[in-house]
């Protein structure tokens, strides 16, 4: 695992959680690019390569991992590629993607490196251990498509490397992994997303990170700032971070890099991959109905309301993101009450059953008593704006200019070469 605060002098190995205990998975299936290139290693013995080209099934039986096809039964196993030159891979079915979101699904994905299976609190855990640069070859194009311009992919790769090595969030450290495979950390859907373009962007930027004050930058990013990026401390608790302060995401003529004038909304599908039908994120509209809001208050805040009277932004950040939202409602006795929601994440969660694009919105109540939200951007808006960075690359800017624009006081530095 990565060591917090340590700047690696050579390419580190990283551990990515593919299946977490919270996924409640009791069995999976996997197969190999070439079974002769792998060995299965239980804790205290070493099985020879097995003769089976078909899928293997792993189940939890009486607290142990059981693979009937090869008579395997133990508390954990590691599947290790025995040759490193050919890049053999393992395909695993049933990997969760989009945990906790309405688009959550199971995918089949292929991975380089080691696959480790263990049992954690009675649940199955799968971990992919691999060299950082191999991981990065899959990440820039899991996050965004390989059709993005090379300067964008280079910037995205440097940002992904910096965020991971800064190692600040450590959301899953108790599970013995550096990160998970999902949007919660960084989207990583295996080597199917690895293309010539993403390999090149990792190779030419190998070991490069952005630094500030002799530390690797905690390089946050989100899909679209909506025109202005947000201050770190308006989204996460803690003190302000000099390289994560609000910037106006405009070109010299005053046009937002993330606006449809620069990145045509019709072309977003090519760049982002999974977009919704409208593909509108710079400006959008959403109707929050009385019924849904009342239900959401009940489910998420345990508040029983009979009517939502008003949504009132109490604190608004530089990007227009609402930081504190007051919801006025009537209770069963018809008394006016209110509740404050204290983060952009919770605001997005409470307003829309499918998670609102962002908390940057203005509010209009219509004749039905529903609230029409006129919104901007997608995501928390802190640090690099991915659609804006794409717009900069389309406009001919270099990856250095992109990083300098979003993380203005940081410096680009190569900390190792692989
Ligand atoms: Zn995570
Ligand atoms: Zn932007």
Detailed description of the structure:
The chain folds into three domains: 13-200, no CATH class; 207-277 and 380-414, no CATH class; 283-376, no CATH class. The mean pLDDT is 91. The protein has helices at residues 132-143, 150-166, 196-204, 232-235, 268-272, 290-301, 344-351, 386-394, 399-406; strands at 13-19, 27-32, 38-41, 56-61, 64-67, 72-74, 76-81, 90-97, 105-111, 114-120, 123-131, 179-180, 208-212, 215-216, 221-222, 283-288, 307-316, 322-330, 336-341, 361-365, 371-376, 384-385, 411-414. The protein has nine helices and 23 strands. Strand 18 (322-330) and strand 19 form a beta hairpin. The strands form six sheets. It has a six-stranded mixed sheet. The radius of gyration is 23 Å and the shape is globular. The protein is α+β, with helices and mostly antiparallel strands and 418 residues long. Bound molecules: zinc ion (2 copies). One zinc ion binds next to loops.
């Amino acid at each position: 695992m990565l060591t917090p605060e340590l700047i690696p002098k050579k390419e580190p190995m990283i551990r990515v959680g593919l299946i977490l205990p919270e996924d409640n998975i009791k069995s999976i299936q996997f197969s190999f690019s070439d079974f002769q290139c792998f060995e299965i290693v239980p804790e205290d013995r070493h099985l020879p390569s097995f003769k089976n080209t078909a899928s293997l099934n792993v189940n939890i039986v009486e607290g142990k991992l059981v693979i009937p096809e090869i008579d395997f039964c133990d508390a954990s196993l590691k599947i290790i590629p025995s040759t490193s030159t050919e890049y053999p891979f393992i395909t695993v079915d049933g990997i969760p993607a989009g945990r906790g979101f309405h688009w959550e699904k199971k995918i089949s994905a292929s991975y380089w490196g080691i696959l480790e299976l263990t049992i954690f609190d009675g649940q199955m855990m799968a971990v992919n251990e691999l060299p950082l640069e191999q991981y990065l070859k899959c990440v820039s194009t899991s996050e965004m498509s390989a059709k993005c311009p090379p300067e964008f992919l280079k910037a995205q790769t440097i940002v992904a490397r910096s965020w991971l090595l800064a190692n600040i969030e450590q959301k899953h450290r108790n599970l013995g992994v550096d990160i998970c495979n999902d949007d919660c950390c960084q989207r990583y859907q295996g080597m199917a997303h690895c293309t010539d373009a993403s390999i090149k962007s990792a190779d030419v930027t190998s070991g490069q990170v952005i630094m500030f004050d002799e530390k690797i930058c905690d390089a946050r990013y989100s899909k679209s700032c909506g025109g202005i990026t947000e201050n770190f401390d308006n989204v996460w608790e803690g003190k302000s971070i000099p390289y994560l302060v609000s910037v106006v995401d405009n070109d010299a003529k005053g046009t937002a890099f993330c606006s449809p004038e620069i990145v045509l909304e019709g072309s977003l599908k090519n760049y982002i991959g999974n977009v919704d039908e409208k593909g509108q994120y710079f400006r959008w509209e959403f109707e929050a109905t009385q019924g849904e809001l009342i239900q959401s208050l009940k489910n998420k805040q345990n508040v029983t309301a009979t009517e939502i009277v008003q949504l009132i932004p109490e604190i608004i950040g530089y990007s227009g993101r609402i930081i504190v939202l007051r919801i006025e409602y009537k209770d069963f006795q018809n008394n006016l009450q209110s509740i404050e929601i204290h983060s952009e994440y919770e605001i997005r969660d409470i307003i829309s059953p499918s998670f609102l694009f962002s908390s940057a919105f203005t509010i209009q109540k219509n004749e039905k008593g529903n609230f029409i939200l006129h919104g901007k951007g997608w995501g928390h808006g802190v640090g690099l704006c991915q659609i804006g960075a794409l717009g900069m690359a389309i406009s001919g800017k270099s990856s250095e200019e992109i990083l300098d624009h979003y993380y203005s006081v940081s410096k680009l530095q190569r900390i190792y070469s692989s």
